[in-house]
Design a protein that fits this description.
By secondary structure, the chain is an alpha+beta fold. Helix 6 packs across helix 11 (about 410-420) and helix 7 runs antiparallel to helix 9.
Amino acid sequence: MASLNRSPYQGKTRKLVLAFDIGTTFSGASYSVLDPGQVPEIKGVTRHVVFPSQDKSCGEVPTVVYYDDQGNICAMGAETTYDGLEIDAAEGKWNKAEWFKLHLRSNLTSGPQAIETLPPLPPNKQVVDIISDFLKYLYSCSKNFIQESHPSGADLWKSVEKDIDFVLSHPNGWDGKEQSQMRQAAVKAGLIPDAADGQKRISFVSEGEASLHFAIQAGMFSKIKVGEGVVVVDAGGGTIDVSAYRQDPNSGNQIFEEIAASQCLLHGSVFVNMEAKTFLDGHLKESQFHEDLDHIVRCFDQSTKLRFKSNQDPQYIKFGSARDTDKEHNIQIGQLKLEGSDVALFFYPSVTSIIQAVLGQRSTARNKIVHVIFVGGFSSSDWLFNSVSEVLTRTDPTLKIFRPEEHRDKAVSYGAISFYLDHFVRARISKVTYGSLCSTWYNKKDLDHFKRASTKYVCISGETRIPDHFSVVLPKNTQVSEDTEFRSRFRQVSYKTSDFKLFSASVWCYRGAIELPKWKDVDPTKFVELCTISVDLSHLHLKPKLNPSGKTYYEVDYEIVLLFGLTELKAQVAWKEKGVEKRSPANIIYDRSTS
């Protein structure tokens, strides 16, 4: 993909950037070789020489892995498409891992109850293990492709392989916990060492933001006026990511800002299959072909779903031979006939969720939404695109809705490289309210405090306090630039100086409807601990004090500085020494348990 006003690479040595997009149903890889003084270009990993068993030029491979009972890989990616694989899998009693990415889902992601019916993970395999295996596979494929498609490819690879930067994309709804698990997978796959220098070589980008970068590179903003709001709908296999942006009219450059909180919907194309399976399960219950249900759904996915355009015309699923007939259940010569209106219902949850999300972005955006851009493999569905477009334009005839003609399925991996190179987005919108749960001084004249008098306690310093007060650091729907700092003040007290060696403070987020939440007990299920900030305070000036009981205790005041405007949360600890602010990095620890 050609550059768009991109500057030559300013580094002194050659460098390689690889982007991996592990999708729910299909995955892809893109890369850029950065040569000093040269304008970087984005290229996709394609052709059959890369992905074993792939029989045509293609930038995608199935996100599928087969394991034997010992956990060894039997086939993965494009290798899972060869003729006879199902026979080998049955005879070898292989365990299939598919749609495994959705097992890494976050509470930020909303969707239908059907998510509970996801295919289970293979025995003794965690989602991090499978993602690690797939990252290793994509890395190997990328290595082979670069070596075989570039002049002196082996020498090129040798010159960059020790210091490759990686960009990993993920759904809009994922946060630090999922990023942490993806880092684990990258280390386990051998992409980076488990050290600080290695961690710096991994960066993350949301699929919505990567799709925006792709749209810019594809020239889709050439006819969009600066300052006009644009909603990008990345319709994929598992999730549909909806994001809104505008080009900053005051920047003088190609600088974009997010103008509404992004959304992540569990209504991708696999959920159309789930709806179809539920319908066909009932329809074929008394048929001899009910035992072929999974095969029929696969045939629907590979043909009928893609070509569906009209709910007025009958649709056919060709799944068997000319001898397969069951007229009572609308099966003749190996084809199952369905009413177009029934097939339309399979798409209904996806269509309605996109419409609601776009209209929601339109109502909350800081600027008027003028354009809607569709990317992602699911956007190739004419029924999906036309159904959404019809309702949106009827709601607002001024909306301009379109989709690129090519590379829709490669939007995320191409856009992830552009994110690394071009960095178009400089401000983002907070999706939830961030803050800290802490105690506060008890004030009997405050009604909120008086109602919670039963929880009051006397702390080490002798003060009477009440717990579970939520101190807001960043409200929901706030536009945050990348360099905006948010501070939270803390005072740590203890009888022992050793307690200051390792201190932890938690960052919480509120995901409910209260605009400015103050107390956890008002809406307790909507408060979620996001992460823990671990800091060493032993080097700070510890103030010895006496409490009312005459006991000596120690006190230290400090601030945790948070940067929310990046694609990853960053944290520092700040304190004062003789009136001068000092800082040090803080470790961010996420719960690493898998979903």
